[in-house]
């Protein structure tokens, strides 16, 4: 979501507060940046991961940091089909490796042994890669990503007086 915080100084702590909320809900920070919105206004952008079951609570806590929420978007990425495909591919590769192991037991010449060993090694590499993909997908399901951008509200000068419309 994108929000406005009350004063110029609050953006300095907003990024820290967002990171603390992530930790409070068992999460961690994946990216944090502070930047200039205008010459005298700063902003911060923070991306965190929190356990999926604590997403709503963490999201609400983060929204409360701002004075005004300018936009908010929640989207989901269903990886169920992809997970099933990767899992099936892993099972097939493991079966292939088992078949090569049986063939290796029957191999008699050095050439046969080398060829089958090469195939086993190639299959083992594919298995390792596929297992990493499966682990990554499991983590995707377990953690939710929240990206927040906050900026200080602009000061308005009216009749020579500095005024903060959202806080005064």
Quick take:
Helix content is 50%, strand content 27%. It is an alpha+beta fold and 168 residues long.
List the helices and strands and how they pair.
Elements (H helix, E strand, L loop, with lengths): L1 E4 L4 H15 L3 E11 L2 E11 L3 H9 L4 E4 L8 H27 L3 H33 E10 L3 E3 L2 E3 L5
What are its keywords?
alpha+beta, 5-stranded mixed β-sheet, two-stranded antiparallel ribbon, 27% strand, elongated
Number of strands: 7
Number of helices: 4
Mean pLDDT: 82
Structural class: alpha+beta
Q: Please report the distance between the alpha carbons of the first and last residues.
A: 24 Å
Largest sheet at a glance? 5 strands, mixed
- The Cα radius of gyration reads 26 Å
Order of secondary-structure elements? EHEEHEHHEEE
**Broad shape:** elongated
The spatial strand order of the largest sheet comes to 2-3-5-1-4
Describe the structure.
The protein has a 5-stranded mixed β-sheet with strand order 2-3-5-1-4. 50% of the residues lie in helices and 27% in strands. Residues 1-9 have low confidence and may be disordered. α3 (80-106) runs antiparallel to α4 (110-142). It has 168 residues and is an alpha+beta fold. The chain has 4 helices and 7 strands.
